[in-house]
Amino acid sequence: MSDTDTRVTAFGIAATFIGTIIGAGFASGNEVLQYFVAIGPMGAMSIIVATALFFLFGLVSLQLGNVLKTDEYGVAINPTTNPFPRIYCDVMITVTLFGTFIIMVAGAGGLVNKLFGVPSIVGSIGVGVLVVLNLLWGIDGLVKAQEFMVPILIVGAILVGIWFVINPLPGGSTGNDEVISSGLLQHWFINGILYVAFNFQLAIAVLVPLGNHARTPKSIMTGILVGAIGLGAGALVVYGAMSLNAAVVGQEAYPMVELAGNIHPAMRYVYSVLLFFGLYSTAISCFFGTVSRLRAIPQINNQNHVVVMIIVSVIGVLLSQFGFSDLVGQVYPVLGYGGLLVMVFMLWVAWTNLWGPNKKQVSTVS
């Protein structure tokens, strides 16, 4: 790796961290709606808890990558020579990738149904076919397009949020009893923890190597602090917009689409196109990750690659029919509970290498 490749700046760390955590689920508004808006005013406190934990675990991931001199996240979550932590985390991350794929397929299918009246299963099948074709044709073009489109989607979500914090709709404010909620997301403190526990499983594999190639200890601290504050501020803006307009968006699967449409009817379609691309690009990334991890199993790797992809896609499409909002409210929290043990393993490794009597010093890349 060249010198310029290895020296990751504070800005690079912050941008990568935000981009990894905030995705199509955030931009749709459904995640923020169920995790934070549904619990009322304490949702803001829940976001503050999540922001603090994003900072803590982001910092730990980066520092462990640095002191252990590794690009392999498994080293940062395996506190002993026992293989169980690594196996558990591999299984959880694979299930999280596949669960996210299912939810993105559900979201894309439901969005097509909302805009054009086409049955959601048709849209989901279309996405299921496209992700297989994308991997057969290569994903380079998609990745390049994603790098351009997804930041626009994230900025768009925050700008729409700011607009409706400043200009709430008449009669839009209401109690949280009119908001979609999950039985698994009922306490503000736990919601903040679960939100981090789910999202962090997808970020570990990116953050550990970033820490290994960070320019200086200061760039690690500054980058993750800016990144965590950015995540929290973005969530608070979207939370505020939806809380002030809960009577309008509380029962919507895509609340930010509904808000965008209230700026101007054309904005509903512009935002929907961006959101669809965000859902699809997240789906292909998670599909690629799922298939890659499954093919690490010898019995699956011996099978025809195309057949494996088709089977994974078909299962994902079938499970997506439970519906976008229901899946976000049920699958994400369950994956969050599973992710708590991953976080415990990482804290164990952090105690040994960062905080305990034999701690190592975070160093500058040479």
Helix and strand arrangement:
Elements: H1 3-6, H2 10-21, H3 24-28, H4 30-35, H5 43-67, H6 73-76, H7 84-116, H8 120-137, H9 140-166, H10 188-212, H11 217-244, H12 246-249, H13 255-263, H14 265-294, H15 298-301, H16 305-319, H17 324-355
Helix pairs in contact: 2-10, 2-11, 5-10, 5-11, 5-17, 7-8, 7-14, 7-17, 8-14, 8-16, 9-11, 9-13, 9-14, 10-17, 13-14
How is this structure best described in words?
The protein is mainly alpha-helical. About 75% of the residues lie in helices and about 0% in strands. The radius of gyration is 20 Å and the shape is globular. The N terminus is likely disordered.
Helix content: over 70%
Mass-distribution shape = globular
User: What are the secondary-structure elements, in order, as H or E?
Assistant: HHHHHHHHHHHHHHHHH
* Strand runs, count: 0
The first-to-last residue Cα distance is 12 Å
pLDDT < 50 runs, ≥5 residues: 1-5
How would you classify the helix and strand content by structural class? mainly alpha
Mean pLDDT: 89
Gyration radius, rounded: 20 Å
Report the sheet-strand fraction.
under 5%
Main beta sheet, described? none
Total helices: the number is: 17
